[in-house]
Amino acid sequence: FSASDASKTIMVKRLSKLFDICVLDSFPSSHRSHPSIIGFAHVLPSCAGRLVEREVRKLDEIMTVAKGPHVLVLGGSKVVDRLEAIKELIQNGRADQVLLTGVIANVFLRAQGRIKFPLGIKREEEVVAKAHALIGEYPDVFSVPVDIAVERNGKREEMDVRELVKGDQIFDLGPKSVEYYLKSIQSAGTVFMSGPAGFFENENFKFGTESLLKGVASSFATTIVSGGHLTAALKRYGLAEKINHISTAGGALVLYLTGVKLPMIQALEEAATRYRSK
């Protein structure tokens, strides 16, 4: 959708007549070109809400003073969005090192041939091919786990990645991987962490996520942590006060840091221009 097209949808046409002003305050959705996000701002006087204002001000402030090396700790399960953004972050100097966890780490392990069986995720061959291309283009940037944890008979079992067999589900990082990742985090100038390292809600598999968050919180780097899962984890482990900025967004934040103009921000800027010209 363009803003113009979005404004012509039935939803925007009908509902916009009921309102005098539009306040957009969902930063986590700001990278989506949905009618509810960009359509109303095209036809109504519009402004950012307090949350969006706080996010943008804080992020701009942090990125102005951020220094290298930039370490990106990337996990979670939204692989397609993350792959699109990683290259931009590297090219824009926002990711000198990328430490991979979660499902996206599995994709890169499959691309390297270390996992030899299908992962069973959407668009698997496409995302594995993209990961393979990224590794080829930036061979010294990416780090993947060397050991992981799976569930066997209701218990945590740690093993080398090469010992995985079809049917195993990776639920967490192993201690060797965590130790290596923590060394990179401690030597960073800026750390951005998005997405949990595993199934941290389960006590057996919280080790990776908790350890990495504690490492980020205790580092001397400028730190940004994003997404609902990690925000909940920070509160659970009592670390929230030790992070420079906790963002409500995941994919939107990654894209914002690349310098991409997010659709919601673009819509608000255009609305402000129209308002000022009247």
Characterize the structure shown.
- This protein has 278 residues and is an alpha/beta fold.
- It has two domains: 3-48 and 260-277, no CATH class; 66-247, Phosphoglycerate kinase, N-terminal domain (Rossmann fold).
- It is 47% helix and 17% strand.
- The protein is globular, with a radius of gyration of 20 Å.
- The mean pLDDT is 92.
What is the compact description of this entry?
The chain is α/β, with parallel strands linked by helices.
What is the 3D form? globular
- Tally the beta strands: 11
CATH class of the largest domain: Alpha Beta
CATH architecture of the largest domain: 3-Layer(aba) Sandwich
C-alpha-based Rg, rounded: 20 Å
The poorly predicted ranges are none
Task: Write the element-wise H/E pattern from the N-terminal end onward.
Answer: HHEHEHEHEHHEEEEHEHEHEHH
Task: Name its key features.
278 residues, alpha/beta, Rossmann fold, 2 domains, six-stranded parallel β-sheet, three-stranded antiparallel β-sheet, 11 strands, globular
Give the SSE layout.
Layout: H1 3-7, H2 10-16, E1 22-24, H3 35-43, E2 46-48, H4 50-65, E3 70-74, H5 79-91, E4 97-100, H6 102-111, H7 124-137, E5 142-143, E6 147-152, E7 155-160, E8 170-173, H8 175-186, E9 190-194, H9 207-218, E10 222-226, H10 228-236, E11 245-247, H11 251-258, H12 263-277
Parallel strand pairs: 1-2, 3-4, 3-9, 4-5, 9-10, 10-11
Antiparallel strand pairs: 6-7, 6-8
Helix pairs in contact: 3-12, 5-7, 5-11, 6-7, 8-9
